[in-house]
Design brief:
Distance between the termini: 39 Å
Domain RNA polymerase sigma factor 70 region 4 type: 109-160
Largest sheet: none
Domain DUF6596: 178-278
GO molecular function: DNA binding; sigma factor activity
Protein name: RNA polymerase sigma factor
Pfam families: DUF6596 (PF20239), Sigma70_r2 (PF04542), Sigma70_r4_2 (PF08281)
Length: 411
């Protein structure tokens, strides 16, 4: 990849959400915003190799996308009425800031997460429009086919247009009904950045993790008393703190038990632990913790010791038991079994894992977990077969390298 291609790829990662949000703010139409943004990036592919990368790629892309959007409106069959309407509503300047926080991407996220949409549609649409994730990436996050996900996003955009859902941060009274979808999106955006699902991207995408944390901080400023917002921020910070230790110099994933804990970010860990302690105090006062608060507490247990051997696995299992009552998903059950392996042994964990096969047969982490348990039990041939299944399903290049090494080490 040459320098210009790298610049365009970097601009797409860093500027996509900003361009789409800015155009949505001006034209009030997600289809127009997304299509014009895509056209602007296509224009960059044509022009930047000849003209050079502009000093401010984001501004160039936004200006180009605005022109593309206006050209499209003019070309449409009812172009006069639509163009006049757009100019009357928006004029040549963006509207005044709406909501308590002036952030276009946060507004766009709340638009996509309107309660009129089904939860899965809210999350998928926002991952596309705000997170800038590709259709294959979103489909992998939901473990569904790409065509299914495309149809879901198309229907969601059509419903937003038909229902005239406003582009704004909702009022204080409306926030609780909207925040669950927003949190789900932020969590998935962060996860895609922390361990990218595709083979054609960096194994860790700093642009996504950074943006997810930034938006979650904004959301916490909007809702300082919401325990789940605080819990998600704590979870992100404690996870991001391990960033530099997660991929080796050779590009291989480094699992938690092999990481150099001295390389973890002590400042992020301290902030994350403080948020967890605040939520534990609230729970002691009778405020039942939600999913993200429990996940943050699990992460706090892992990051509170300097040696993996000092981990309080009984506490981790107890927290997963608590989480299972809120989220009885097979992935939660799988993660609980991983902790059980440290407490009760790999044979007990493997029995729990095997019960999940029907639900997680297409999930690479299931087979990787099973492979590791079989390895620990000395069942090398079965472990190798499980590693092969995991490698066939995984997309992340660092994770692929790690799984290949573990498989090749089997006797």
């Amino acid at each position: 990849m040459n320098d210009v291609e790298q610049a365009i790829t970097r601009a797409h990662r860093e500027e996509w959400a900003w361009v789409v949000a800015t155009l949505t703010r001006r034209f009030g139409d997600l289809d127009i915003a997304e299509d014009a943004a895509a056209d602007a990036f296509a224009a960059a592919l044509e022009r930047w190799p000849a003209d050079g990368v502009p000093p401010n790629p984001g501004a160039w892309l936004t200006t180009t996308a605005n022109r593309k959007a206006i050209d499209r409106i003019r070309r449409e069959s009812k172009r006069d009425d639509k163009y006049k309407e757009a100019q009357m509503v928006y004029g040549d300047h963006p509207p005044e800031p709406l909501g308590a926080i002036d952030d276009d991407r946060l507004r766009l996220m709340f638009t996509c997460c309107h309660p009129a949409l089904a939860m899965e549609s809210r999350v998928a649409l926002t991952l596309r429009m705000v997170g800038g994730l590709s259709m294959p990436e979103i489909a992998r996050a939901f473990l569904v086919q790409e065509t299914t996900m495309g149809q879901r996003i198309t229907r969601a955009k059509a419903k937003i247009k038909a229902a005239r859902i406003p582009y704004r941060v909702p009022s204080t009274g409306d926030l609780p009904a909207r925040v669950s979808g927003v949190l789900a999106v932020l969590y998935l955006v962060f996860n895609e950045g922390y361990l990218a699902s595709g083979p054609d991207t960096d194994p860790v995408r700093d642009d996504l993790t950074t943006e997810a944390i930034r938006l979650t901080r904004l959301l916490r400023a909007l809702m300082p008393e919401d325990g789940e917002v605080a819990g998600l921020l704590a979870l992100m910070l404690l996870t991001e703190a391990r960033h530099t230790a997660r991929v080796s110099a050779s590009g291989e994933l480094v699992p938690l038990d092999e990481q150099d804990r001295g390389a973890w970010d002590a400042t992020l860990i301290a902030e994350g632990h403080r948020l967890v302690r605040e939520r534990l105090a609230a729970a002691a006062a009778g405020a039942a913790p939600g999913r993200y608060q429990i996940l943050a507490a699990i992460s706090a247990v892992h990051t509170s010791v300097r040696d993996i051997r000092d981990t309080d696995w009984s506490q981790v299992v107890a927290l997963y038991d608590q989480l299972s009552r809120l989220d009885a998903s097979p992935i939660v059950a799988m993660n609980r079994a991983i902790a059980v392996a440290e407490l009760d042994g790999p044979d007990v964990a493997l029995a729990a894992i095997d019960r999940l096969e029907d639900k997680l047969a297409d999930y690479h982490a299931y087979h990787a977990t099973r492979a590791d348990l079989l390895r620990r039990l000395g069942r090398s041939s079965e472990s190798r077969a499980a590693y092969d299944k995991a490698i066939g399903l995984v997309g992340n290049t660092a994770e692929t390298a790690y799984l290949n090494r573990r498989r090749d080490q089997l006797q």
